[in-house]
């Protein structure tokens, strides 16, 4: 029985609703961790670099695990992977609340939560969407999944700050864990594996990766995605503390993160829609160039509530709008069969950038008392990534798998 037949009993609308709710909650909780920087660092007596290292390890663990999570979901089905990831995510967040020092925080908030996010977040949801919709509509549905993730960021930023203010950071984390557990029944709607025809040859994990890596457009896409991770992880984790340093309130920091999430709903949906009509690589180059300009203006203008919210709105439009376009190109290059794995490899690069952005932010702050050097680096990386995307060609890789030996 084909994957399409196995999943036919579940309407596409149910798949989309369940996937979007899972993406919203898992991403919303993750993006609220920056709100815990000051209260947790103060109560636990850890440095800004120590906190940043835990969050950086989280992003790195997420990135390392993502290709394997995608490959397992491709082969054995999304529902099992997502359900296991939700359980692990809830456990990691609860243990994060009980972590007494930086070392344990690195284990719980870093490794456990990072791996859990890789098997429960929007990357896996997009793989489920990719096998359920026609090729010409994939960018749009990838945009819907990304927009749902952004709505979670918009919702959980003020909710998380409200939990912290009302109950303290430990109880806020326990509440997040309970919310995650409520997602478990929704994972059933995502069951199914990637469809394959009788002519398909199972390339295996390394075979598919070796074949894909020969395609120069894929290599450029993967390398450029590093910059997206650097930007959003640095801003997401360090922006609230940066604004407090500039004399603004913690509430301004939380609402800034919320505004980013709100505007990224528009940005992600627009990118998903336009990705089916305009050259995706040119849209990506434009996004990275515009990010560089927006960061430069924000850094060199005086910081106020107005500039913080305007920057949040602009960067929100560009925030995860790269995701449906990048996922759309991966799907176009190689088809849906290895979507989870090969997008996972691209996302690993993204998370390497996230690791560097989060860790470097904490390190530079502890060394200089300022985040300015990291902001400047973000400008240069945005310009570099824009240039990298220009040579990408939007076409199918006709040689995918052809250069590999076939089993006898």
UniProtKB/TrEMBL annotation:
The Major facilitator superfamily (MFS) profile domain, residue ranges: 12-396
Any one GO molecular function term: transmembrane transporter activity
Pfam families: MFS_1 (PF07690)
Keywords, alphabetical: Membrane, Transmembrane, Transmembrane helix
SUPFAM superfamilies: MFS general substrate transporter
InterPro entries (alphabetical): MFS, MFS_dom, MFS_trans_sf, Proton-linked_MCT
Transmembrane spans: 52-72, 79-98, 104-128, 140-160, 172-190, 220-243, 255-275, 282-303, 309-334, 341-361, 373-392
Protein name: Predicted arabinose efflux permease, MFS family
